[in-house]
Design a protein that fits this description.
two-stranded antiparallel sheet; 324 residues; Cytochrome Bc1 Complex, Chain D, domain 2; mainly alpha; 6% strand; 14 helices; elongated
Length: 324
């Protein structure tokens, strides 16, 4: 934070603590000039106020909390940009990428810095890493179990499901049925292939698909005609003349989707004949896709999760459309 905010936070924090201390001292003094326990003359609803001091336990507790607050703020970050005497931090700050985080984590371990997130990750790997390896490796401890075999292991798929919910559900949904622009992983329709190793490759390295915009090249009439032909491939009722004209223009699409419109897993080009639509199958949605194009990105998880966890997630995803 900038210098102004740092000073502002420091003044407010210390001002509040010392203000409470001043209030405690002020309240502990007898300013009435009266004998302890004597009536003050203030009566409300039949209840008289007596000149009694603050309870000792209450005062001691107040003093303890003030001292505790000052010690805590001295040891840990909390006063603006002051990092605390212990050098503790909740996480590596100001990182902008995974590479920067890994570099910061390595530096923290080398310098023995108290980075809480790093310490918890190391502890988690010590506790759970062995379990992940037990579920993903053969008895020799060096060879991965086949993903199809792991998919039939109830304990392994339960772990894979939890990893999926933590990392994949934000896009694909907790039930893995996807949403507009995010594939349904339960229906057996795969852009990049649904074989075990293809699923794993998708998770490891990510995918980047690009449907170019054809609006300028085709014009509005061309967009409408190609949309009619594309819709006809899945058995939809369209204007036959428009569809025929669209078929002639479809040559620009065939390079990715094939002359038969059945797609190409090597390029992530969808099958246009099965009536399964990633961005919507209405005429308006199809025309919008042709006119403006689409860009889909599946992030790579290898450096984030590691191959052991990806092996379990791959098995879980594979089990969704292939049974257990």
């Amino acid at each position: 934070m900038n210098t102004f905010l740092s000073v502002f936070v420091t003044v407010i924090s210390l001002g509040t603590i010392f203000g409470c201390l001043a209030l405690l001292i002020w309240c502990s003094r007898d300013k009435m000039g009266m004998e302890e326990g004597a009536p003050t003359g203030h009566t409300y609803d039949g209840i008289s106020e007596l000149n009694n001091p603050l309870p000792k336990w209450w005062s001691y507790l107040f003093v303890f909390m003030i001292v505790f607050s000052l010690v805590y703020l001295a040891l840990y970050p909390g006063l603006g940009n002051f990092k605390g005497l212990l050098g503790w931090t909740s996480s590596n700050q100001d990182v902008r990428s995974l590479a920067e985080y890994n570099e910061a984590a390595d530096t923290a371990r080398t310098d023995e810095l108290l980075v809480q997130y790093d310490r918890e990750m190391i502890k988690a790997d010590e506790v759970f890493g062995a379990k992940f390896r037990e579920l993903t490796y053969e008895d020799d401890g060096t060879t991965y179990r086949a993903i199809a075999d792991i998919a039939h292991d109830e304990d392994a798929t339960k772990v894979g499901q939890r990893l999926f919910l933590q990392n994949c559900a934000q896009c694909h949904g907790s039930d893995a049925r996807g949403a507009r622009g995010f594939p349904n992983l339960t229906d057996g329709d795969w852009l990049w292939g649904g074989k075990p190793e293809q699923i794993k490759a998708t998770l490891l390295h990510g995918r980047r698909a690009a449907m170019p915009a054809w609006g300028d090249a085709l014009g509005e009439d061309g967009v409408r005609e190609v949309a009619s032909y594309v819709l006809s491939l899945s058995g939809r009722k369209v204007d036959a003349v428009e569809a025929q004209k669209g078929q002639a223009r479809f040559a620009v699409c065939a390079a990715c989707h094939g002359m038969d419109g059945k797609g190409n897993e090597l390029m992530g080009a969808p099958n246009l004949t099965d009536n399964t639509w990633l961005y919507g199958g209405s005429r308006a949605a199809v025309e919008d896709t042709i006119r403006h194009g689409r860009n889909g990105v599946m992030p790579a998880w290898k450096d984030i999760l590691g191959e052991d966890k990806i092996q379990l997630i791959s098995a879980y995803v594979y089990s969704l459309s292939n049974g257990k």
